[in-house]
């Protein structure tokens, strides 16, 4: 099985696994340095658009990404060549980080609008709606504060505490890091489906064959569903996954259009 590993796939697997081991057991500060933070975060560095791909949240996060690369990467590398396979991986990974940062800027912008609206017209009702939208980030004691604030809506002390809560949640949001090679992997998946659409893959759950094009279509629709659903407790960067798919499609179409440089 491992004899079929191609050079770029093998090196990507080794680098990602090595980085996970080092960050998990020897240098945990690497994750703080390499994870991708929002551009307004004091922890942000431009190099994180590249380095975040080599950090993973836990073993299963690493395993799922590397397993996908292990399954789909070798055949693509044999077909595209090492240079284009590496280009696909890196462009989709870095591009996903950039697009996700833009999406994150939109979300933080919405949060800033909420904060601005409260500052202009503070009220317990407005603060209560904010807590409902971000309840996963608040401690249970906030509900006692809401009761006190509701009873004293004109209290300057209560209004100031509410403002501090707003800013505290904003601080949490801009300092939530993104890690993982999922964007790069989704670029690999869509490229595989575009070059080998009718290749049948045997699923583990349920144990049945499915064509590559249908499998990737399912992943794409599932990703879009999660973006629309936008569950507050979901810590998966689904927009980065979708970004990898979109960038992968664009890159493959570009290569197909320029066939003289492709083969």
TrEMBL record:
<dbReference type="GO" id="GO:0004252">
    <property type="term" value="F:serine-type endopeptidase activity"/>
</dbReference>
<dbReference type="InterPro" id="IPR050925">
    <property type="entry name" value="Rhomboid_protease_S54"/>
</dbReference>
<comment type="similarity">
    <text>Belongs to the peptidase S54 family.</text>
</comment>
<keyword id="KW-1133">Transmembrane helix</keyword>
<feature type="transmembrane region" description="Helical">
    <location>
        <begin position="235"/>
        <end position="255"/>
    </location>
</feature>
<dbReference type="GO" id="GO:0016020">
    <property type="term" value="C:membrane"/>
</dbReference>
<feature type="transmembrane region" description="Helical">
    <location>
        <begin position="12"/>
        <end position="30"/>
    </location>
</feature>
<dbReference type="Pfam" id="PF01694">
    <property type="entry name" value="Rhomboid"/>
</dbReference>
<feature type="transmembrane region" description="Helical">
    <location>
        <begin position="184"/>
        <end position="205"/>
    </location>
</feature>
<feature type="domain" description="Peptidase S54 rhomboid">
    <location>
        <begin position="47"/>
        <end position="105"/>
    </location>
</feature>
<feature type="transmembrane region" description="Helical">
    <location>
        <begin position="212"/>
        <end position="229"/>
    </location>
</feature>
<dbReference type="InterPro" id="IPR022764">
    <property type="entry name" value="Peptidase_S54_rhomboid_dom"/>
</dbReference>
<dbReference type="InterPro" id="IPR035952">
    <property type="entry name" value="Rhomboid-like_sf"/>
</dbReference>
<feature type="transmembrane region" description="Helical">
    <location>
        <begin position="50"/>
        <end position="73"/>
    </location>
</feature>
<feature type="transmembrane region" description="Helical">
    <location>
        <begin position="85"/>
        <end position="103"/>
    </location>
</feature>
<keyword id="KW-0812">Transmembrane</keyword>
<keyword id="KW-0472">Membrane</keyword>
<protein>
    <submittedName>
        <fullName>Rhomboid family protein</fullName>
    </submittedName>
</protein>
<keyword id="KW-0378">Hydrolase</keyword>
<feature type="domain" description="Peptidase S54 rhomboid">
    <location>
        <begin position="173"/>
        <end position="254"/>
    </location>
</feature>
């Amino acid at each position: 099985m491992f004899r079929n590993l191609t050079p770029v796939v093998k090196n990507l697997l080794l680098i990602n696994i090595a980085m996970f081991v080092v960050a998990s057991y020897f240098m945990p500060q690497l994750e703080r340095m390499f994870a991708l933070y929002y551009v307004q975060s004091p922890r942000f560095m431009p190099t994180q658009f590249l380095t975040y791909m080599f950090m993973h949240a836990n073993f299963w996060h690493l395993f799922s990404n590397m397993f996908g690369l292990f399954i789909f990467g070798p055949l693509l590398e044999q077909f595209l060549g090492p240079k284009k396979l590496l280009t696909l991986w890196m462009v989709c990974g870095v591009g996903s980080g950039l697009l996700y940062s833009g999406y994150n800027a939109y979300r933080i912008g919405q949060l800033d609008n909420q904060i601005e609206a409260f500052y202009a017209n503070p009220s317990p009702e407005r603060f209560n709606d904010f807590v409902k939208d971000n309840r996963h980030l608040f401690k249970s004691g906030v509900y006692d504060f809401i009761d006190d604030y509701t009873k004293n809506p004109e209290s300057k002390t209560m209004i100031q505490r509410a403002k501090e809560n707003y800013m505290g949640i904003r601080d949490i949001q801009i300092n939530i890091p993104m890690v993982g090679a999922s964007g790069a992997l989704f670029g690999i998946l869509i490229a595989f489906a575009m070059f080998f659409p009718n290749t049948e893959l045997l699923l583990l759950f349920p144990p049945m064959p499915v064509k590559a094009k249908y499998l990737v279509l399912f992943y794409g629709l599932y990703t879009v569903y999660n973006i629309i659903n936008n569950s507050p407790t979901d810590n998966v960067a689904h927009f980065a996954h979708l970004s990898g798919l979109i960038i992968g499609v664009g890159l493959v179409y570009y290569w197909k259009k320029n066939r003289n440089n492709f083969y």
